[in-house]
Amino acid sequence: MKIEVWSDYVCPFCYIGKRTLEKALAQSGFASQAEVSYKAYQLNPNTPIDSDVPTYESLAKKFGQTVEQAKEMSKGVAEHARTVGLEYDFDNMVEANTLAAHRLVKWAETHGKDGELTEKLMDEYFIQAKNVGNHEVLVSIAESIDLPKEEAVKVLESDQFMGQVQLDIAEAGQIGVQGVPFFVVNRKYAISGAQPVEAFVEALEQIAEEEGIRPKLKPMGKKTSFCTGDSCDGN
C-alpha cells in the first residue's frame, strides 16, 4: 500500500494528520505493508525568508482577524492536537517560509532519512516553537538526526533539490489538491484533511479490500502448546 502525503511543516493539521495516519495504520494492521512518503506543499510561499512575525499576528493578518481572535482559533487547533498526543506551543511560534525545509528533506531522502527529518521538523516547529525557515535552525535539526552538517549547509546555501520540490507542488495542482494534508493511496484513492482515526481506519480497510490487501496480524500472548500439520508442540 503506497501512501503519498502532500503536507507543509507549518500546517497544524498536517502534523495532526500524520499522527492520525500512523495510529490508523497500527490499528488496522497495515503499518508494515504501507510505504508512506511526504510530498512538498507550501501554504504560505510568500512568507519572507527571514520572518520572525509571531504566529498569532500572522494568522490575524491572513484571516482578517484580531490577534485575540487568532488566539481563540488556535486554542481549538491545540485541543485537536492533544487528542493525538501533541502539545502545540502557539504562544511562541513564528511564521516561517518552508521552502528550504522542503529542499532539505529531499536531500535527507538521499541518506534514507526523509521520514525522520519530516517528523523532526514538525516537532521542532509545533512543539519546540523553533523557526524552521531559519537556516541555522535547519542545520541544527539535521545534525540532531546524524545528517552531515557540511552537506546540509551546502544544500541550504544553494538551490539544490529545488526542482524536486517544485515538481511536488506542481503535481499537487494537477491532481486537484486545494489544501493539506492530502493523502493519496496507490495513486487511486484520495483522503483530504486530518480525518479522525476511525475514519482513516475505515478508509484504509475499504481500500485494502478493493486492492486485495490483507492486514498483517499482530501476535498476542505467550508462545504455548499448538499443533501444525506435521507435529504438536507441547511447550
UniProtKB/TrEMBL annotation:
Taxonomic path: Bacteria, Bacillati, Bacillota, Bacilli, Bacillales
Protein name: Disulfide bond formation protein DsbA
GO molecular function, one term: oxidoreductase activity
Classification via PANTHER family: GLUTATHIONE S-TRANSFERASE KAPPA, THIOREDOXIN SUPERFAMILY PROTEIN
Occurrences of domain DSBA-like thioredoxin (ranges): 3-204
Pfam families assigned: DSBA
Domain of life the protein comes from: Bacteria
CDD domains: DsbA_FrnE
